[in-house]
Amino acid sequence: MSEKRIPVTGGCLCGAIRYEVTDPPFDGGYCHCKTCRKAYGGLFGVWLGFKRAGFRITKGELRFYRTSELAQRGFCETCGSPVMYAYDGSEGYGINAGSLDHPEDWPLMDGTSFGHGFVDSKVPWHTIDDELPRYPQGTKHHDAALDRADGSDQRD
Ligand SMILES: [Zn+2]
Ligand SMILES: [Zn+2]
Q1: Which residue, of 33, 41, 76, 139, has the fewest CB within 10 Å?
Q2: Confidence class for position 111, pLDDT limits 50, 70, 90
Q3: Ligand 1 centre and the CA of 86: distance in Å?
Q4: Do residues 46 and 32 lie in contact, with contact meaning Cβ atoms separated by under 8 Å?
């Protein structure tokens, strides 16, 4: 594989929002919850976790929509592209993998991913075809936040 590009760069579809991250992702995963489905406009969400400290917006300004008591999601108000997921009080951001300029640099494999969260909510005609761990509800990542909120709602 070619060298991984650091800083990691990305942005929205129209280019109004651009960001840069100085550190590689520390985790990532797939989320099959209904909220992610709607927020991404896809069958599931795919995110990479980056430390907030290394992340900065280099162009434009994200708008945020609060999708639950736990988190809000950042998007471009011009083109509507979803860009990130921010748990309240977390040290990381979940950056939508598809917003990276080079998502091919950071494949979600064993050791770099929590796997699939909320598979109980998965769209039935979509088949997961990898060997990553599967969690009926949240991933470990999600569970920590759910514990904090003592919620049992299967959404984030
Ligand atoms: Zn845009
Ligand atoms: Zn989700």
Answers
A1: 41
A2: confident
A3: 18
A4: no
Predicted confidence (pLDDT) per residue in 80-110, tens digit: 999 999 999 999 999 999 999 999 999 998 8
Q: What are the φ and ψ backbone dihedral angles of 80, each rounded to 5 degrees?
A: 85, 0
From the CA of 84, how far away is ligand 2's center (Å)? 12
CA of residue 14 to ligand 2 center, whole Å = 25
pTM to 2 decimal places? 0.87
Q: Which ligand has its closest atom nearest to the C-alpha of 78?
A: 1
- Which two structure tokens, joined as six digits, stand for 93? 């951001």
Centroid of ligand 2 to alpha carbon of 44 (angstroms): 8
Determine the distance separating the centroid of ligand 2 and the alpha carbon of 134, expressed in angstroms: 13
pLDDT digits (tens, 9 = 90+) for 144-154: 444 444 344 44
Quote the pLDDT of residue 71. 92
* Spatial CB neighbours of 91, under 8 Å, sequence gap ≥ 6: 51, 52, 53
Question: 101 alpha carbon to ligand 2 midpoint, in Å?
Answer: 22
Full set of structural domains in the chain with CATH: 8-149 (3.90.1590.10)
Ligand 1 midpoint to CA 58 (Å)? 13
